[in-house]
Design brief:
Keywords: Electron transport, Heme, Iron, Metal-binding, Transport. The structure is a single chain. With 195 residues, the chain is mainly α. 57% of the residues lie in helices and 0% in strands. It has two domains: 24-101, Cytochrome c-like domain (Cytochrome Bc1 Complex, Chain D, domain 2, Orthogonal Bundle); 115-193, Cytochrome c-like domain (Cytochrome Bc1 Complex, Chain D, domain 2, Orthogonal Bundle). The chain has ten helices and no strands. It binds heme C (HEC) (2 copies). One heme C (HEC) binds at residues 35, 37-38, 40-42, 53-54, 56, 64, 67-68, 78, 80-81, 84, 96, 145, 157-158.
């Protein structure tokens, strides 16, 4: 019985394909088709539509892949990104990560942090050692994200989410954010945004 039903539904799919109706299944879509939906929020030219949406153009490929995987697993919770990532297979995520990592990082035109703010941020970096992982000039590498030039609003939000563990996909980053003095968070966001 189930075999019969199976062949029936295959017949329907084959017929739809012959008549060229319905949507192209995900596996048959080109990378441009797969990433079309992303532009609605992350921006058609890499500049996110909303300031609390992160830049994904030019972000490290390993990191982009891990975030998509974590959204799909539910380790990183977000009402918008979880359903989007759930529809992606591992190979789609790797291809999408590679695709966006090769785009140029957009310039949001954020001002450099004033001297006093920058000094506070650099002090926090000295005590917590952010650049030990995020590397010189906060460019990141592999699974470590670039932070330089990310929007101040998103940085503020996500650092706060690490602290409250609302963003729970990397407990190590949460511990580090909790070890950072709360007064240093605003200077860090402003400093990183202005790099
Ligand atoms: C409806 C809006 C929307 C759409 C469409 C969307 N995103 Fe997102 N995306 C967001 C928001 C908002 C966040 C930040 C979530 C948070 O604060 O935790 C995000 C976060 C991400 C992150 C994490 C980046 C980081 O710096 O941590 C990745 C990767 C990502 N999106 C990739 C994609 C890809 C790939 C697509 C298309 C397949 C896509 N998004 C479509 C809104 C969207
Ligand atoms: C031990 C290594 C390590 C150190 C030290 C570290 N980070 Fe991170 N950070 C990471 C990793 C790994 C991630 C990616 C987490 C994930 O997979 O979601 C990350 C993610 C982040 C993000 C999220 C970026 C995004 O696009 O969502 C921010 C913001 C951040 N770190 C800020 C900092 C700051 C500020 C410091 C210093 C006060 C710091 N980190 C120190 C390893 C580190």
């Amino acid at each position: 019985m189930s075999g019969r039903l199976g062949s029936c539904s295959f017949g329907a799919v084959a017929l739809a394909a012959l008549l060229n109706v319905g949507v192209t299944p995900l596996y048959a879509q080109s990378i441009e088709e797969k990433t079309q939906v992303c532009a609605g929020c992350h921006g058609a030219s890499g500049k996110p539509v909303d300031k609390t949406t992160p830049i994904i153009w030019g972000q490290q490929a390993g990191y982009l892949y891990i975030e998509l995987r974590d959204f799909k697993r539910g380790d990183r919770k977000n009402d918008i990104m979880q359903p989007i990532a759930s529809s992606l297979e591992r190979q789609d995520m790797l291809d999408i990560a590679d695709y966006f990592s090769k785009k140029p990082w957009p310039d949001l035109g954020q001002p450099r942090a004033p001297k006093e703010m920058a000094e506070k941020a650099l002090n926090a970096n000295r005590s917590v050692g952010c650049t030990g992982c995020h590397l010189d000039h906060f460019q990141g590498d592999g699974t470590i994200p670039r932070l330089a030039g990310m929007s101040k609003e998103y940085l503020t939000k996500t650092m706060d989410d690490f602290r409250t563990r609302a963003r729970g996909n990397n407990p190590g980053m949460s511990d580090l954010m909790l070890a950072t003095s709360p007064e240093d968070l605003a200077p860090l966001a402003e400093y990183l945004a202005g790099l």
